[in-house]
Amino acid sequence: MNRNSIQFKAASVAEKVVSDQGIKQLPVDPIAIAHNLDIEVTPQPIHSRGVSGMLMRVNNSFGIAYATHINSIGFKNFSIAHELGHYFLPGHVDAVFGADNLHISKAGFFSEKQYEMEADLFAARLLMPQRLFKEAALSVDEGLLGIEELSRTCKTSLTATAIRYTECVEYPMAVIVSVRDKVSYCFMSEPLKEVSDLTWIRKGQNLPINTITFDFNQDSQRVQDAERDADVSDLQDWFGGDISVQIEEAVQGLGRYERTLTILTAPDLFDKIEEIKENEALHKSWEPKFRL
Ligand SMILES: [Zn+2]
């Protein structure tokens, strides 16, 4: 199954949970959902790096433990929602439990294992369900500031919120997570995908050197100190194509995650491209035509 069909399945199951639980406002509280299902949720000091939580089964009862080594409400909610994903998604309980009736998760959008990816996509959609999230997304500023506000409203991490935001916005934008000079992953909004001649950014490719993100990542201290930076950038530097047009680039160091979040936004990109093309056509019509 590819990511799109996995996403569709995970999103439908999460939306049904939101509807069955009668959730009408943000934030969605995954602990309250667990309690409604008689699933006990407990904090647990888990020292293994990258582990976010566990789902346990004793006879027919389930329990969730979430890791406490990262003190962030966004991480906690996502970890619990990920375990609920294993509980709700068809086939997961049979597939993810070992002989000890215990599943250990590494949640957080970096997994390529299908069951983990599905549980991550479920978690994002459970905490940021379509109707409520889209309504909230329409009421905030564009770009990083708006995404920050949404992450406070939903009690979700900045990265998870940014990725979910790209799925809902109606203007060209992209979210890029990078480590040093390499792209970890990139999500583009549908309107940005519609711009012709762009080369989509791929996982593992080098960051373009003429960008604020590239400069920012030269200093790992800035990433660890969760500094931020912002300026204009060029669409062409990021995505190639024939048109040089300015876009906004905002950069946020992700601190202990040792990654950098970049938000590229271009709300009026189509108007700018149109204007550039009209100017070029006008310029061409003025060029003197010589006979050879
Ligand atoms: Zn898992």
Structure description:
This protein has 292 residues and is α+β, with helices and mostly antiparallel strands. It folds into two domains: 3-130, Arc Repressor Mutant, subunit A (Orthogonal Bundle), CATH 1.10.10; 170-285, Beta-Lactamase (2-Layer Sandwich). The protein has helices at 3-20, 30-36, 73-88, 92-96, 114-127, 130-138, 144-154, 158-168, 190-193, 212-217, 220-224, 235-239, 269-286; strands spanning 40-44, 53-58, 61-67, 102-105, 173-179, 182-188, 228-234, 246-253, 260-265. A five-stranded antiparallel beta sheet has the order 6-5-9-8-7. Strands 1-3-2-4 form a four-stranded mixed beta sheet. Strand 8 and strand 9 (260-265) form a beta hairpin. Helix 1 (3-20) packs across helix 5 (114-127) and helix 3 crosses helix 5 (114-127). It starts with a helix and ends in a 6-residue tail after the last helix. The relative contact order is 0.10. Bound molecules: zinc ion (ZN). Residues 82, 86, 103, 105, 116, 119 line the site of zinc ion. The site of zinc ion has 6 residues, from helix 3, strand 4 and helix 5.
Named CATH architecture of the largest domain: Orthogonal Bundle
First-last Cα distance: 59 Å
Shape: elongated
User: How does the major sheet shape up?
Assistant: 5 strands, antiparallel
- Compute the number of strand runs: 9
What is the helical fraction, as a range of percent? 40-55%
Bound molecule types? zinc ion
List keywords for this structure.
single chain; 292 residues; alpha+beta; Arc Repressor Mutant, subunit A; five-stranded antiparallel β-sheet; 44% helix; 20% strand
